[in-house]
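== Polypeptide entry ==
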Amino acid sequence: MVRTRLNLALAVLLLAGCGNGNGNGNGNQKLPGVKIDPDRVTVSGFSSGAIMAQQVHLAWSRVVDRAGIVSGPPYGCAEGRLDTALARCLVPAGAGPDPVALARVARDRAAQGLIDPLEGLAGDRIWVFRGTNDAIVAEPVVAASATFYEALGGAVVERDFARATAHVFPTVAAGGDCASSASPYIGHCGFDAAGEIFRRVVGGADAPAAQATGTLVRFDQRPFAADGADPSLGDTGFVYVPPQCGAQPCGLHIAFHGCQQSADDVGDAFAMQAGYNAWADAASVVVLYPQATDSLRPLNPKSCWDWWGYTGSEYDTRQGAQLRWLGNVLAALGVKV
């Protein structure tokens, strides 16, 4: 058991590294009452957030139309097991994930009603990114995320694997050293990953606003837990509301941080520095930034999203605690999944 816990700590450390906590959950508001166009719902994520984005997309592909995947393993990679996650889904010593086999699992789950019918993927745009200097998640693992979607059929997949970035979320100028994976895991790389996500996935704008002029709202995540299930999330979530979105229907983009990038770890750094918000202003899109948290029971010391089953065996289906929580948040925003 001690060895298992040490291995888990190593796994989540590899997915994002260490950082100093400064989030606190004080001053939270209610989720803002914005009007969301249910035909304009998209998702993206970095590292553990990238696989969480795939879990959301597959669970609700009837509603969530497209996905941006930045430096993350494919859906189902861990198969609900920590040892599989360690051996296969980061930097595999042997065989990496088999995306064709994982696609068969997804088909079976769709047939059982555990995720949405795969027809919902038809025409969806998928953008998959990995930097050439990423030492945390190997290229074949991230490539398997792209091949997984191709094996399912229907989606339009684009790969971007030729840029010299480390395991960070790339921006034009915000964050730390692009060549080093260090807190807050946002790198000034001269490359706008959020912009590519908007251009290739979200749509609605060809360029960002000159600056973000909307409001970043801190909201209380606790009331959205489903039926007493513990999603193991932080108290504080963020939602960015462009100025025009209080009076008119806007799209919704869900952006998942990586491990050790939560509000408890880096405050609002991911929400404010990753680059989504100026694009959101230009595209009339509300951005939801859900927040994970660290815990000892269940063991998740680096604030990762659940991609190996720490919240239960149904974690990557519509019955998973974190997905059910998100479903309640979307319902409060007027999006029925």
Observations:
- The two ends are 38 Å apart (CA to CA).
- The first helix runs from residue 2 to 16.
